[in-house]
Amino acid sequence: MNAQPDLAETSRIEAFSDGIFAIAITLLVLELHIPDLEPGERLWPALVDEWPQFGAYLTSFAILGIMWINHHSMFRQIQRADRGLMFLNLGLLLWAALLPFPTNLFAEFLQDEGTNAHVAAAVYSTNLTLAAIFFSAIWWHALRNHLVDHEMTPAEQRSSVLRYSVGTLLYAAAIGLSFISAPITLLVLFLLAVYYGFEQLRTRG
């Protein structure tokens, strides 16, 4: 299939996206702080007390890292870009770039015994849900508008979109789980990052 004249190459989209992912990942580590020790206090227990910060950091790093890998994998398949694809990619980057804020919020209130922990977990989960929605929408849009060079049967298209959508639904379910247990929500979201670590685009080259 020949590219339409009003379609652009994806190289600038990929380069811009790589920069945003790199900045977002870098910002995550800036929220890790050295513990404030009282006179005579030992460092090791103080570091253990900082586990919410490290847990939230590792989870968000894994999510952004896997998102970047899958974004690269997706754009190996997508050969052309239209304005719709560009806007959808900007939507994905909006939530990817925002992730350091809910990560810090989640870490700050993870051990709170009131409702603050649940609200922080819900904000974090909502951010990831919206990012996942845009991620799925990019691939759906690329298939619908023939922005890939290989042909896929309708069944193959549905299967590839479904592999993304299952994770999206689980992210949305994590919003509800946030109001039950914030620590369990963090664990589930980390496991979802592991799920997305497996190749989601099984296409015919």
Please, could you describe this protein's structure?
72% of the residues lie in helices and 0% in strands. The chain has 205 residues and is mainly alpha-helical. Helix 3 (51-77) runs antiparallel to helix 5 and helix 6 runs antiparallel to helix 7 (154-178). The mean pLDDT is 86.
Percentage beta strand: under 5%
Question: Which value, in Å, is the CA radius of gyration?
Answer: 19 Å
Order of helices and strands: HHHHHHHH
Terminal-residue CA separation: 14 Å
Low-pLDDT stretches: none
SS-based class: mainly alpha
Sketch the major β-sheet. none
Task: Kindly list the characteristics that best describe this protein.
205 residues; mainly alpha; 72% helix; elongated
Write the layout of secondary structure elements.
Layout: H1 11-29, H2 43-49, H3 51-77, H4 83-98, H5 100-109, H6 116-144, H7 154-178, H8 182-196
In short:
Helices cover 72% and strands 0% of the residues.
